[in-house]
Design a protein that fits this description.
351 residues; alpha/beta; Quinone Oxidoreductase, Chain A, domain 1; Rossmann fold; 15 strands; 25% helix
């Protein structure tokens, strides 16, 4: 099978690799779409590739990336029930998608899906089984997969995982109808977070960024305000718009110095939810104390995948407008280059 292999800093090769072989308890899936995530961009751009020190959370090495994807079942392993060739699937990353807890939306309490750490839970498997989805085929444990409803497109299904990330601060901050929300960062996670907040009834929704095309897209998708950080003090503007500060601020940026400013722009007893990886900074905790703030780190590991799929199935959220380009797998280098250059918001690869 063809796969996109990271070989160096911002460098890819298309290689022929062994197609994974189905094993008991697994599904062999043909990848239909795979989105490029900000985490993929960070991995491929790590200074560690060139032997430089940095603040990276990754130790880079040759790899096949891709965790925002949808596949079609082409072979069903022994002992797998409820799946057929032709079914479409997404990875629910740590939950089975079927048990009592998952059906109630308490995916983090699911025990049946906790197969992370080995490719198949018990028994393990060959290294080729652990490929990411920037390849023609992937092999996954059946109990860690969720079926895609017929009325959800491939493009939408591939965004189940990042929409789950966007739902995380909405659920964990307890957003209610008419709560004001400021979203810092309008990359594709910020855009999906905005859609999730809108589905919850937040109003007004304020989005900030320094790229005009992203701010324009946020307004197109339903944000009430889009503020350019290069054109004035957006934190003062947030205070002006909300009168007392936002009920919640969602940090969806990487490497930006935003934590201290967020404590100024959130209201008393408000919530700051961290979704991205903001820059390490020295903070003055006096604002946390005097304003009685709640600062939370959000769970990105699959707790809200089922809710994300349901919102798309029942047309409460439309993720497709954030896809700015679809390219064949062979154009993976072009796709990443376009994202680094700011030419695209989100690129979908089609193996």
């Amino acid at each position: 099978m063809k796969a996109a292999v990271v070989t160096g800093r911002r460098r890819f090769e298309i290689r022929e690799l062994p197609t994974p072989r189905v094993q008991p308890g697994t599904l062999l899936l043909k990848v239909r779409r795979c989105a490029i995530c900000g985490t993929d961009l960070e991995y491929v751009d790590s200074p560690a590739w060139d032997g430089q020190d940095g603040e990276d959370i990754f130790t880079p090495g040759e790899a096949v990336l891709g965790h925002e994807w949808v596949g079609e079942v082409v072979e069903v392993g022994e002992g797998v029930a409820g799946w057929s060739v032709g079914d479409r699937s997404v990875d629910v990353r740590g939950s089975c998608g079927q048990c009592y807890w998952c059906r109630r939306g308490l995916n983090h309490l699911c025990l049946g899906g906790r197969v992370r750490g080995t490719p198949f839970g018990e028994g393990g498997g060959s290294w080729s089984s652990m490929y990411g989805a920037m390849a023609e085929y992937v092999l996954r444990p059946a109990r860690g997969q969720m079926k895609v409803p017929d009325n959800v497109s491939d493009e939408e299904a591939a965004l189940t995982e990042p929409l789950n990330v966007g739902l995380s601060p909405v659920y964990e901050a307890g957003i209610k109808a008419a709560d004001s929300v400021a979203i810092l960062g309008a990359g594709h996670i910020g855009q999906l977070t905005m859609l999730a907040a809108k589905a919850a009834g937040a109003a007004p929704i304020i989005v900030t960024d320094n790229i005009k095309s992203r701010l324009d897209k946020a307004l197109e998708l339903g944000a009430d305000y889009a503020l350019n950080v290069d054109e004035g003090d957006v934190y003062e503007q947030i205070l002006d718009i909300t009168e007392a500060g936002a009920d919640a601020i969602f940090i969806c940026v990487r490497g930006a110095d935003v934590l201290q400013q967020s404590t100024l722009a959130v209201r008393r007893e408000g919530t700051i939810a961290i979704i991205g990886f903001p820059k390490p900074v020295e903070l003055n905790p006096i604002y946390w104390l005097t304003k009685h703030l709640r600062i939370i780190g959000c769970d990105p590991m699959g707790r809200y995948n089922i809710q994300a799929m349901r919102l798309m199935q029942y047309k409460q959220v439309n993720c497709r407008p954030i896809i700015s380009a679809t390219m064949p797998l062979e154009d993976v280098q072009k796709a990443f280059d376009s994202l680094y250059a700011g030419e695209n918001l989100l690129v979908m690869l089609k193996p």
